[in-house]
Fold:
Amino acid sequence: MSLTTNFLLLAVGLTALILGGHFLVRFTIQLSRLWGVKPLFLSVVILGMGTSAPEWFVTSVASFQESSGMALGNVIGSNIANILLILGLSGLFCRHPADRQVIRFDLPVFLLAIVILWFCSLNGILTRLESGFFLILFTAYIALLFKQRKPENTSESQDLKSLPTPLQKGKKSYLFYLGGLALGFCGLFVGSILTIDSAAELGKIFGLSEKFIGLFVLSVGTSLPELAVSFQAIFKKQEEMALGNIVGSNIFNSLFILGSAGLIRPVVVSSGFLQTDYPFLIAVSLLLFVSLLLFKSLPKILAGSFLILYFSYLFLSARLFF
Structure:
């Protein structure tokens, strides 16, 4: 396809992402009101896993095609892009107030996951046994998360009651809101496919390497659903959902996506990932955790620093690839 066609497909894909994000946030809020659970819970479980569907699709295909560099690069690059690029951009408009559950449970789980992932990668390969262990950890995380789905105190219950009230609470209402979620996911899926395909083609046109496409073109492209959902959550004044979506997505990426990809075919880990990309991901994850622990939010100056860090990482890595 020509350069113009790829740019047009990119524009259509981005539009579908925006609309899909709008529907997802809107109907997730309504369902949290119907079910009497915290919006944060649904943002971590439904939005976090749902917006990671493109990463799962791309990583699985790469694993089937024996492209370990692209599979692993997509997951690590997506996690880095979610923290530095997505939280950095959205953090310029919102401080991302952190719920106690995110600080005490979700972020520590993510940090533990990437440290275990790095440790298992030291021998240069992620085996099927280790991949199965990641899936067990993910199942345990989801089980523990379900125990925390209800509001913990009266103030949280009042916040839940302040959400927009659904029109009705019958069977038709549930089907309507679940249908809205499905429509939102379809928008994200179609938008992601169009965006990823056109971006990958543009990368090939400009002569980028496979690892570069995996780490940056595909990882940024597959992180676009998180960006769309985060900005929609901020627009609807549900800032905690934006942070929950990012943390949930990163946990899903690290445990479920790499776990399932490793079961398909053991993932070969190059020395470049061990020496540069893994340590950088751990460092920025710790920086986010410390910020939320100290300030209970993400200061705007740190959000701006995240963007500088990301583009510096992009620039330095690009120089290594050429």
Q: What stands out?
A: Residues 154-168 have pLDDT under 50 and may be disordered.
